[in-house]
Amino acid sequence: MSRLTQAVVLLLFGGAILRASITDLYLRYVKEGLRPFLLAAGLLLVAAAVTTLWQSLRAGEAEEDHGHSHSHEPRIGWLLILPVLGLLLVAPPALGSFAAGKSGSVSATPVSDSDYPALPAGDPVPVSLLDYASRALFDEGKSLTGRNVKLTGFVTPAPDGSPMLARIVLSCCAADGRPIKLGLTGQVPLEVPADTWIEVTGAYSTQRGKDPVNEVDVAYLEVKTWQEIDQPKQPYA
Amino acid sequence: MSQNRLDAEEIDWTPPPAPEPALAPAEPPVPRARRIGSLEVLAALLVLLVILRGWLAGLVDSERLQTWTTVFVSVLVQAVPFLVFGVALSAVIAVFVPRSFWARALPRHPALAVPAAGLAGVILPGCECGSVPIAGSLIRRGVTPAAALAFLLAAPAINPIVLTATAVAFPGKPEMVVARGVASLIVAVAMGWLWLRLGRTDWIRLPHRPDVDGESKWHAFWAAVRHDVMHAGGYLVLGAAATATINVVVPASWLQRLAENPVLSVLALAVLAVLLSICSEADAFVAASLSQFSLTSRLVFLVVGPMVDLKLIAMQTGVFGRRFVVRFAPATFAAAILVGTGAGLLLL
């Protein structure tokens, strides 16, 4: 690989990273906090490409003819075209129902010792899936009873085919993404294809289930109404 | 490689859109089929990819392949900042830090330099992708390999960011943080000392890097950055592909059955840490969610992960050579399991 080629590959790679972090594309793969670092890394890659271009153009062909110089250059660098391809041409979607069905639900962790604070005002009040599961499982739903809650997630089928509401929880990147799942009762959204994003309004249900993948307790939600929505800007919880 | 050659043959009917005017003077003196340079191959490849874009998108239609692509891209996007900053830091070490600095900074005796270098890992807030090129650069600058290896193993596991993440992932269990730090440092130092006794310098083959002496410092800096990104980055792509494959292929329900046996659970999570190749800043959260496993086996997961995994093995092969990795990785793996289990039994 000549220096000029390396410069082009670096430029594409850095450009792909920059483009993904300037648009919201990066949110499909990593957490929002990584953005400044991605921008800095992309700029550094582009700078490396530009200096290489400048150096090799200034050095002219004398340098390029320099004997067997290309055999020392890393061939493995050709592989860097793959992420460029992935980010610029394919841009795969955020993790969804396939990943949710494959791994077991996150076990909601209890708030240490103290009681759960009351839900904020609002009818219905927006609650995250993790918060709902934690309040339902460890507090027997005390802070949830009598309230209407609104949750956002995508539809994923349980092993028996009934729809569940899920969201992928990321701690770093999609490789460690794990689903949080809720069972649904009441006005269950039937006939909705997997991976459809919905906004559900409902109330606390005492029903419990187990995720067959890792035997973790799963909370249930009694659905009152639901509607299809577009995928939120931040698909992960 | 065969793919490149295929595209090179198809170059006749695909007019390469020359992005650079400098393309024209490329007339290599070799009058064989090698006439087509890498830049032309790249241009043809890119044109082909754009033409075949629709077909490629259709190929990624199946759910499994789609998830594979998502995980592959996301491992790379997550690792790129760490890779680039690690590479930049290692270029600074190679170009701007004089050799004499390391002689003064580290204890003269190698056996003392090892723990000192291991402890120095505390100050590098990053994950394992960054520490591989830095360790390679340290060896180049005359640091004894044993000390550089102790730094390589310790830095991703015991820096403040990773230990904080561990504390957050295991609320109310500060002993987990202590056990992780202590066990990782012990493994790193033990491997350094082991290298002093048994290691042979000719196992390490650092890749040829453009000679930096005699050029302007900034010229050398950018040349080192370019070389290391192409090199370590290429191996990172390999590792990310392996990680994505494991992520999609291994069903989580297998783990359920292994968790019941105390010995098997330790081994299972050690192997899983190698296969999953999760960034050391995130692995504590994954360990926390493997709640069906014992605390000791999850500690082993946290000790093994930053030291041996598919992504690291690929990158270390690139930076230190194959003969080094086939010896170093299994030895580190065994040491991490033993020390991790011991620390788990004593501290947890």
UniProtKB/TrEMBL annotation, chain A:
Where would you find the membrane-spanning parts of this chain?
36-55, 76-95
Q: In the record, what lineage is assigned to the organism producing the protein?
A: Bacteria, Bacillati, Actinomycetota, Actinomycetes, Micromonosporales
- Pfam families hit by this protein: DUF1980, DUF1980_C
Spell out the InterPro entries in the cross-references.
DUF1980, DUF1980_C, DUF1980_N, UPF0703_membrane_permease
Which superkingdom does the taxonomy of this entry point to? Bacteria
Q: Keyword annotations for this protein?
A: Membrane, Transmembrane, Transmembrane helix
**Is Acetylation found in the keyword set?**
no
Organism, scientific name: Paractinoplanes toevensis
Query: Locate the DUF1980 domain: which residues?
Result: 6-92, 142-236
Q: What is this protein called?
A: Membrane protein
TrEMBL record, chain B:
Q: Which InterPro entries match?
A: DUF318, UPF0718
Query: Coiled-coil segments, which residues?
Result: none
Q: Where would you find the membrane-spanning parts of this chain?
A: 41-60, 72-97, 146-170, 177-196, 232-250, 262-278, 324-347
Does the keyword DNA-binding belong to this entry?
Answer: no
Q: Which Pfam families match?
A: ArsP_1
User: Could you confirm whether the keyword Cytoplasm appears in this record?
Assistant: no
Q: What is this protein called?
A: Permease
Q: Which organism is it from?
A: Paractinoplanes toevensis
Lineage from the top down? Bacteria, Bacillati, Actinomycetota, Actinomycetes, Micromonosporales
